[in-house]
Amino acid sequence: MNLVRRVGLTLFAPTLALIVALAISAIVILAIGESPLVALRELFNFGDSSASQIQAVTVILNRAIPLFLAGLAVSIGFRMGLFNIGVEGQYRLATIMAAWVGSAIVLPAPLHLLLIVVVAMAVGAIWAGIAGVLKVTRGVSEVISTIMLNFIAIGLASYLLTGPFRGTPEGSLTIATEDLPESGRLASLNGLLGQLGLAQPRTDLSGFLIPAIVVGVVVAVVVKRTRFGFDLRASGLNPAAATTSGVNAKGMVVKAMLISGGLAGLIGLPDLLGDTYHYGTEFTSGLGFLGIAVALLGRNNPLGIAFGALLFGFLDRAALSLQFAGIPSQVVTIIQGTIVLAVVIANEVARRIAIRQAERSGANLPTAGPPAGEQPATVAT
Amino acid sequence: MNDVPPAVELRGITKRFPGVVANSDINLVVRRSEVHAIVGENGAGKSTLMKTLYGMHRPDEGTIAVNGKHVHFKSPADAIAAGIGMVHQHFMLADNFTVLENIVLGSEPRTGLALDFVGARRKLAEISTSYGLDLEPDALVEDLGVGDRQRVEIAKVLYRGATTLILDEPTAVLVPQEVDELFGNLAELKSEGLTVIFISHKLDEVRRVADSITVIRRGTTVGTADPNSVTARQLAEMMVGSELPTLETRDSTVTDEVVLGVEDLTVLLPTGRPVVDSVSFQVRRGEVVGIAGVEGNGQSELVETIMGLHELAAGTLRFGAEDMTGWSTRQRRESGVGFIPEDRQRQGMLLDAPLWENRILGNQTRPPAVKGIFIDRSAARKDCARIMQEYDVRAPGCDTLAVALSGGNQQKLIVGREMSGNPKLLIAAHPTRGVDVGAQAAIWELLKDARSAGLAIILVSADLDELIGLSDTLYVMLRGRLVAQLDPADVTPEQLGIHMTGAAA
Fold first, then answer.
1. Which of A132, A364, B247, B474 has a CB 3.0–4.6 Å from the CB of A257, allowing a cystine?
2. Is residue B374 part of a domain?
3. Do A370 and B218 touch (CB under 8 A)?
4. B220 shares its domain with B272
């Protein structure tokens, strides 16, 4: 199969899925008595001034960064056939632990940041690792254990927040951990935007954009170019063949869960380090579950996950402007849901087409089929 | 007979299917009340054809007629309704059920809500006596031998009202004595007016049992033959074309240097029953040790344990001078143990990955596929191209997905890959199963050359000629134990068969 056709096939599926999803969403919007065209206009309405356009892009990026990290975390599990549904609990617990450690300790700026990141990743990894260890030692399905660990993590985070880790005074309206000191905060990229001669957005562009990109590149390299990544993918493609080839299946499960959980630990950091500086009752939730959708959209490929995260960020941004236009913001959720469904179906169709093409290219080889010019013979009938 | 429409008539059947030889333009006429043999080499497309007839997949082209009526089977249920039943090569029975329970399973007779076992028992008794199947309805299937299990499968199909039975390689799992019993049963079926389609690649059996023969080669029907007048040689030539591969024995290259020492190896099933029972043997440099046995007597577990895939309950494994009992599979591979697994698609390939990635599989820690912790893509590709050329793997290129290759080409890639790390010991489990005859000859040559070059080889096979032809030392495995050591130079397949059933003891 030549490159052009392969790329074409790769892009064909998501594009088709997007069109189908938009068509279904349009029908839904029509059904509730609103105009799909208005909705479409609002999706792309970034405002007239360059300042408001920069602002819109900033909002999209800020939303996309944690989604991207969540998608990466889920994709590591998916790559070897593990369903880490527990990303949600992993990042919530990781964030509150990181917020507490970060506020309790003062270190020089880079070390302080590093410590917070390490704590977050370690907590996420340990929490996911529990599911991994349970799977290899007791045969517990990671789907069940991660879901149950979500409940425990969220309950535990609530307890810690209202009890030992509470930083706001008794009787105050907000319940949150103590704010991180200056040395534990990450500068926004607004300065960089200024240097590029762009208008300043009203919201800060999260400084975590750059680490997120680095993490994405590292994950891509590890999965595609290293021995470890090969073992990981082989375990996902064919566990029996991977074991026969010398991969330690149990070790792989634990390692994949640790990495997945470690990445999950990063999800809350853009907000913690660059926006809220504390973990509280209003801290963004649901990113872990959205990460599953983003990983599916991106077919577990870091670049694809980036596109998926940006698409979700783009749709989420429109929620507010849709409401201004009188269209319920839930329309965005409907669009997101239909896109994921459509993409999953389209990917499967594309995969089958690719396999059929591969078979056909194999079937045209000289080995298959009888040699030409051979006549069926009949012996002594 | 000419006024009676044929029991089954296939015209122009074409089927494209992943990984195996496609069927193209198959024509087949099976008359009523005959045993019709379909012969062809492993991988010629016999099973694909029978799956088409049994409704397990739909043909891309062509028509099927049963008793003169055109049919379109969407599923095996349609085929069963039309009176076609299939006895699979691998039995599909629940071990912890009785014969009767297994037979009614899936088509349970009911009176109201309760199961009508009385009626079922009566019907089974009728079937058992009228076709001479001699079944004990209350025996547990796990206590039955292979031949009995096969008769349960046949009864199961008859119970569902089949008038045409497809038997897919029924003798593959049987020893010669059991084959005789099976042929007796087939004669009974025929005399009661049933039609039997008998799939095999064993020419002598086919000539004994069949009323007519259709030959398949490379996915298409190449002709029909009369078993009374055709010779085995003529049939073989129809099956394989002109070139018949031969297995002549060569001078011994066995040395004194022991490569693998297996001592008192015992492997337990989860139930605690030993599946490999205190097995001891040695493999020396330049020696092929063949392990014969009816499938399921522990051969798979034995070789997989040598590869480190099962925990051993007792015993030691020595590799050269070292004790490798506690080594991981990867350590074993790194130390020079190559493995051709019996189920290449399940254990040996990443079907959805390109060939160059399949080249890396099993060599993840060794050059040229890797450089430090990184995969060396260009070197892996280059070496994949070398294997394709040296081992005659026919594929468009190293970026082709493995699923696109025929079974024989997949197998040649695996052989090439396992040989490329300069192994000291090669474990070959059914190395020529399901590959076309050209690839079979090529693989035999490769194994012989490797032996001459000093490789120690363990060969597990169900092909007795292959075992006798290639082995320097031959062991027979029965119920987890090595029950006999034979000299391949003067043993016949029949004698081997006697040892395989335990009748010699």
1. A132
2. no
3. yes
4. no
Q: Evaluate the omega torsion of the peptide bond into residue B367 and state whether it is cis, within 30 degrees of 0.
A: no
Q: Which residues contact B432 (CB under 8 A, 6 or more apart)?
A: B42, B411, B439, B440, B443, B444, B461, B463, B466
Q: How many residue pairs bridge chain A and chain B with CB atoms within 8 Å of each other? A: 151
Q: What class is the A33-327 domain?
A: mainly alpha
Helix (H, G, I), strand (E, B) or coil at B70: strand
Q: DSSP secondary-structure letter at B313? A: S
The confidence score (pLDDT) of residue A373 equals: 33
Same domain, B272 and B204: no
Are A367 and B339 a contacting pair at CB < 8 A? no
Statement: residue B120 has pLDDT above 90: no
Distance from CA of B394 to the nearest CA of A (A): 7
DSSP assignment string, B235-280 = HHHHHH-SPPP----------S-EEEEEEEEEEE-TTS-EEEEEEE
* Identity of the highest mean pLDDT range in B4-13, B85-94, B489-498: B4-13
- B59 & B167 share domain: yes
Check pLDDT > 80 for residue B179: yes
Q: Does B137 lie in the same domain as B198?
A: yes
Taking the Cβ of residue B377 and every Cβ of chain A, the question of whether any pair is shorter than 8 Å is answered with yes
Pair B299, B439 in one domain: yes
Contact between B364 and A231 using a beta-carbon 8 Å cutoff: yes
Four-CA torsion A15, A19, A21, A27, nearest 10 degrees: 180
A240 contacts B395? CB cut-off 8 A: no
Whether A353 and chain B come into contact, CB under 8 Å, resolves to no
The whole-angstrom distance between B390's CA and the closest CA on chain A is 16
Q: What is the pLDDT of residues B266-304, one digit of tens each?
A: 999 877 888 999 999 999 999 999 998 877 788 999 999
Q: Which of B206, B240, B274 is the last residue of a domain?
A: B240
- Chain A residue closest to B354 (CA)? A358
What is the ipTM for the molecules in this complex?
0.80
Q: Is the pLDDT of residue B44 over 80?
A: no
Residue B124 lies in a domain: yes
The owner of tokens 């078993």 is B227
Helices within chain A (DSSP H only): 3-31, 36-43, 50-79, 87-104, 109-138, 142-162, 190-195, 209-225, 227-237, 239-244, 249-266, 269-271, 287-297, 302-324, 330-363
State if pTM tops 0.80: no
Number of domain units in chain B: 2
A376 touches B: beta carbon within 8 Å: yes
* B238 touches A: beta carbon within 8 Å: yes
In 3D space, the residue among B473, B461, B399 whose CA is nearest the CA of residue B435 turns out to be: B461
CATH assignment of the domain containing B481: 3.40.50.300
**Residues 425-484, chain B, touching A (beta carbon < 8 A):** 436, 438
Domain match, B187 and B235 both: yes
Residues B215 and B73 in one domain: yes
Q: Does B339 touch chain A (CB under 8 A)?
A: yes
Domain extent for B221: 8-240
In a domain, B192, yes or no: yes
Domains of chain A: which residue ranges?
33-327
* Residue in B339, B375, B405 closest to A227 by CB: B375
Q: Do B209 and B146 belong to one domain?
A: yes
* Residue B432, both tokens: 């020529």
pLDDT along chain A (381 residues), means of 10: 64 80 89 87 85 90 96 95 94 96 90 95 97 94 95 95 87 86 88 84 90 96 93 92 92 95 96 92 91 91 93 90 85 88 85 72 44 35 32
Task: Decide if pLDDT at B153 tops 50.
Answer: yes
A241 reaches B (C-beta below 8 A)? yes
Gap between the Cα atoms of A121 and A115, Å rounded: 10
Q: pLDDT class for B245, splitting at 50, 70, 90?
A: low
Average pLDDT over residues B157-185: 84
